[in-house]
Write a structure and sequence with these properties.
alpha/beta, 8-stranded parallel β-barrel
Length: 366
């Protein structure tokens, strides 16, 4: 890459935040709302995040989930690039086994051309959906094969991004465009720069692979909290310096929701938890309203799930959320905290990021 990749990966903490703060957007769609509403909220949050000093803004790939309108990260990122100027934009992540590596190299080469020097390519090996949908995406029912081939798919993708297949390779004369080949073509004035690659994970597999390759690592603490510390330890132990990083760099995704009063926070996270209950029991739908969640008759098993799920959601007033984030940082040593606010209404999510920014004294717009 033409510029120092580590400079793009490592963020800067602002205000009193212990580490850089970032945003993970699932583009959630609440009951009574549309995907258009959700995408407009994403633009509003991205603009707020940029103005208040959040470091990066990622969207995640999910499929066949009515309450999550982020099936096409590259499309959403192009939309966000048109409405922002400075904040880093990226995928958290693209599920690589669902796609041909060349397609991803082309998509993110295009994004890099749209927003030079501020695009991240986060990659995961899970399908981001159920098995039947994954089979439809991949046109095969041999799903384990895709996950097992992830290191090979990753290596191929990086070769396309760098345009450096060796002589004799069957893809030697195939180029991802936009990409580095344009800089080396006669009359070429294109930048040879390409987005930094991150590995995402919720277990030890990607942690070890990211460490071995010297890549930055993002861990899904927001839905795999029990594995966070072991995975980060494995990443750091496995890390080998590379042309990308000379030392480990790990961020964690965190469910965090701040509201103006504690009671409202409890109402909102109950609705988000009901949405997860329905998803985990094969009944995915739009994110319910707090009123619907309060009226819902939870079974004892569902109540236990809600307690367990919400134990890992940092929620309450801005001061309570700040204290929870500070404690989480101390326990994990994460280099960056990426916050995801799950709630029915876009206004609630937007307000949460604003309150957290205020609690840490992040910059305010001129």
């Amino acid at each position: 890459m033409a510029r120092d990749a580590a400079e793009e990966i490592r963020g800067t903490a602002h205000g009193t935040a212990p580490v850089p703060l970032s945003v993970l957007d699932l583009v959630t769609v609440g009951a009574g709302r549309t995907a258009t509403d959700a995408l407009r909220t994403s633009v509003d949050i991205a603009r707020l995040a940029e103005h208040r000093g959040y470091h990066r803004y990622w969207v995640a790939e999910h499929h066949s989930m009515p309450g999550v309108a982020s099936s096409s990260p590259a499309v959403i990122l192009a939309h966000l690039a048109a409405h922002t100027d400075r904040i880093r934009l990226g995928s958290g992540g693209v599920m690589l086994p669902n796609h041909a590596p060349l397609v991803i190299a082309e998509q993110f080469g295009t994004l890099e051309a749209m927003a030079p020097g501020r695009v991240d390519l986060g990659l995961g090996r899970a399908p981001g959906t159920d098995g039947a949908t994954a089979a439809a995406l991949r046109r095969t029912d041999r799903l384990n094969e895709g996950a097992d081939d992830f290191p090979q798919q990753l290596a191929e993708l990086i070769r396309f991004l760098d345009d450096d297949f060796p002589d004799g390779h069957p893809y030697r004369r195939i180029h991802a465009v936009p990409g580095p080949v344009q800089a080396t073509s006669p009359g070429g004035v294109q930048s040879a720069h390409r987005p930094p690659v991150w590995l995402l994970g919720s277990s030890g597999f990607s942690a070890r692979l990211a460490g071995t390759l010297g890549l930055p690592f993002a861990f899904a603490h927001h839905f795999s909290a029990q594995n966070t510390v072991p995975a980060l330890d494995l990443y750091r132990e496995s890390f080998r310096p590379s042309a990308v990083l000379d030392a480990p760099y790990a961020l964690i995704g965190v469910s965090a929701l701040a509201t103006d009063d504690e009671k409202e926070a409890r109402r909102q996270v109950l609705a988000a938890a009901l949405n997860m209950v329905r998803l985990r029991t094969g009944r995915p739908g739009l994110v319910p309203t707090p009123e619907e969640a309060e009226a819902y008759d939870f079974s004892p098993m569902e109540e236990e799930f809600v307690r367990s799920w919400n134990a890992n959601v940092i929620h309450g007033t801005a001061d309570e959320v700040r204290a929870g984030l500070d404690d989480l940082h101390k326990r994990t040593g994460a280099d960056e905290l990426m916050l995801t606010a799950n709630a029915h209404g876009g206004d609630v999510r937007l307000r949460s990021y604003e309150l957290i920014a205020d609690a840490y004294g992040l910059p305010t717009p001129a």
